[in-house]
Amino acid sequence: MNLDLVPAYAISNENQRWITSRFQNAKRILTVAGSGDQAMFYSINGATHVDTYDIALFAHVIQDIKTTALKILNHNEYCELIESLNNTYGDYRTAKHIARVLPHLPVDSIEILNKYGQYANFNRGSMYPEHLPTRDEYARMQATITQPFNFIHTPLNKLHEKISGQYDIINISNIFDTVPGREQLQIMSNLLPHLSVDGRLLYIAQAGGYDYSVIQYENPQTGIKFGHEGTFYQNAHQRGPRIESFIRTR
């Protein structure tokens, strides 16, 4: 299976409104591209710089579709576009309003669609209308997001090879749900130098997983200190989606 060409999500199955508002002091963000909602909600929740990454090329495309649509469509039309893309099981070009957006996409997304458009699919998940931006959020996105987000095409385990500098948040979404524990530790170790002091690596867990409270790391040579900060649930009953937060403290 070519993971580069897996379907993308038209709408996130994660509550980005909750996730991105959790740590609003974070300015530099590196997040999985996913449905594009991740970067867009970070942009209206305090971030001043957002980079994105994904193994799926169509995650890049849906992200560009959304940032381009901000300049062309009103709020109602945008919501209709996303719902239509999510419910289109054939040619994505039949989705409502998409014909107005496609000619204005960034060149790299146009090239992806020209080369792989026959495989393009944005109905990977269920529809979560509550995760669409509100009218106010959409207006803020229109005012804030004036350029497409930088996109890095890579699997998570190679991400550290493609980035430089440091981030206040590295969001890996729910990728660890299907990654064995030993590989998780290696990925965290590789990404650690790219976290600023007080920077966080966020795993948006939807599966069981491990006891992350035992993860505490200190390197006497570099002085770097890193560990599990806590588990934050979306609801008061401490069930369902949660954020596993790991923080670099030194």
Describe the protein.
The chain is an alpha/beta fold. The protein has eight helices and eight strands. The protein has helices at 16-21, 37-43, 57-72, 75-87, 98-101, 107-116, 135-144, 181-191; strands spanning 28-32, 49-54, 150-153, 167-171, 195-205, 216-218, 225-233, 242-248. Strands 3-2-1-4-5-8-7-6 form an eight-stranded mixed beta sheet, with helices on one face. Strand 1, helix 2 (37-43) and strand 2 form a beta-alpha-beta unit. Helix 3 (57-72) crosses helix 6. The relative contact order is 0.16.
Mind sketching the topology for me?
Elements: H1 16-21, E1 28-32, H2 37-43, E2 49-54, H3 57-72, H4 75-87, H5 98-101, H6 107-116, H7 135-144, E3 150-153, E4 167-171, H8 181-191, E5 195-205, E6 216-218, E7 225-233, E8 242-248
Helix pairs in contact: 3-6
Short overview:
The protein is an alpha/beta fold. The chain is built from 8 helices and 8 strands. The radius of gyration is 18 Å and the shape is globular.
Index terms:
250 residues, alpha/beta, 8 strands, globular
Can you list the strand order of the major beta sheet? 3-2-1-4-5-8-7-6
Specify the biggest β-sheet: 8 strands, mixed
Mean pLDDT: 95
Taking pLDDT < 50 over at least 5 consecutive residues as the criterion, the unreliable ranges are none
Structural class: alpha/beta
Query: What is the number of helices?
Result: 8
Order of helices and strands: HEHEHHHHHEEHEEEE
Strand content: 15-25%
Give the % helix: 25-40%
Task: Sum up the overall morphology in one term.
Answer: globular
- Tell me the radius of gyration: 18 Å
- DSSP, total strands: 8
Alpha-carbon distance between the termini? Answer: 41 Å
